Amino acid sequence: SQQGEEDPQALSIQEGENATMNCSYKTSINNLQWYRQNSGRGLVHLILIRSNEREKHSGRLRVTLDTSKKSSSLLITASRAADTASYFCATDRGRGSTLGRLYFGRGTQLTVWP
Amino acid sequence: DTAVSQTPKYLVTQMGNDKSIKCEQNLGHDTMYWYKQDSKKFLKIMFSYNNKELIINETVPNRFSPKSPDKAHLNLHINSLELGDSAVYFCASSQALPTGATNYGYTFGSGTRLTVV
Predict the structure, then answer these.
(1) DSSP letter string over B42-85?
(2) In a 3-state reduction of DSSP, which class is residue A82?
(3) Of A90, B28, B30, B69, which is most buried with the most CB atoms under 10 A?
């Protein structure tokens, strides 16, 4: 089954630095989504990028998508200790505009030190 | 608050028991899902369901069955629980992506940690 794969598996940085996480996937997609999961909590949707888009911004988040390479990146600028969490990419092969089922990668554990 | 809520948050039970996890969404979404997250944080789709179609991931044992009394609820029933069923189970919902929507995604519940002893 198709799954995204994130790298690195773990990332440790200082507050104020930028954090970049990458995601690769295997088959064609309708859209790709990034989620955050704080320890012991549920997933929070961060951003969605459609297959015909190349870049999206939301606050301190910047997501890129390269469908030719089947890869995406999530950049968090000026990181804060509160950004410490696991970050997952998820691909959606839903037909047209309908959201299908999500296939998740294994996540990147980001730790931001004060 | 608009949300996906699932109960219970924690469930500890013995092998062989039958248990249910409830999920409700008040977002008006037309599709609901169950995901399983294992101890390594890997999330895997189990079911997706709307009022037209139930899609079952073929790797899910038939001891697991979704039950939907109405559009806002999708409960997960598990028969004859096994040690390997221990995991965190997440309910989620979604709506068809609106044309021109700039950002849209799934809404997840906070999870049910199931421990089988």
Answers:
(1) -EEEEEEEESS-EEE-TTS-TTEEEE-SSTTB-EEEE-S--GGG
(2) helix
(3) A90
Share of chain B above pLDDT 90, in %: 57
**In this structure, are residues A104 and B42 in contact, taking their beta carbons and an 8 Å threshold?**
yes
Task: Tell me which residues of chain A have a pLDDT lower than 70.
Answer: 1-4, 94-100
Do A9 and A24 touch, CB atoms closer than 8 A? no
Best interface-test mutation with B: which of A2, A37, A43 has the largest number of B CBs within 10 A? A43
On the question of a cis peptide bond just before residue B8, with omega within 30 degrees of 0, the verdict is yes
- Coil, helix or strand at residue A83: helix
* Dihedrals phi, psi of A53, to nearest 5 degrees: -105, 155
pLDDT the model gives residue B57? 77
Q: Check if the beta carbon of residue B67 is closer than 8 Å to that of residue B75.
A: yes
Element (H, E) at A34: strand A31-37
Contact A99 B99 (CB under 8 A): no
Residues of chain A with C-beta less than 8 angstroms from the C-beta of B27: none
Phi/psi of residue B3, nearest 5 degrees: -170, 175
